[in-house]
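Q: Hi! First time doing this. I have a protein sequence and I read that you can turn it into a structure. Is that right? Here it is:
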Amino acid sequence: MWFAWRIRVQRVGPGEERANSEEITFLRVAEAEIGADLSGQVQSLLQDCFPGYPDRSYFKLPPHFRYLAMTSDGVVAAQMGVELRVIRVGDSVVRTFGVVDLCVRQGERSRGLASGLLAEVTGLARACRMDFLILFADDERLYVRNGWARVRNRCSWVKIDDHTTLGLARQADPDAMMVKAIGARAWPEGDVDLLGHLF
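A: Yes, that's right. Below is the predicted 3D structure, encoded as structure tokens:
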């Protein structure tokens, strides 16, 4: 099932005055419902934004659903994969959405699309009674501005490479893990078991 809504974003380049606004449509779509054309656009965007990205529209495994920001002429301007996962943190089992591969086309950056996609998944997480949103990021600036915090729990996950399970990985200090609390629950103490691959 596809969900769509429209927002207006300013088309302003470096050193330009405010230009006319353009309508951007945000879509939330199940991965299994994405057709070949749209999948090709997503793959192209991912490869443009992440050098060395594989020749497919996902890195390790496909996400459960995606948010897409579409221009009025049908071009994918931004995308974000989302995975539904329960994970264990210490003695607690928590419901999470894992955010994967958030990216914005070069010519569409600095218009609030990434923050808009993060706001949308935050709203859905509240409506679905998730405990936390989780992601892994080297550059935390966007996420800190949007309410995320870095955590230092030891972490384990299933290692997957090119559709092959390689075993279990453990990292003592996963300095790239970030979380956003959805309700009043505090992030638990203890080791994190992602109960699957790394987001």
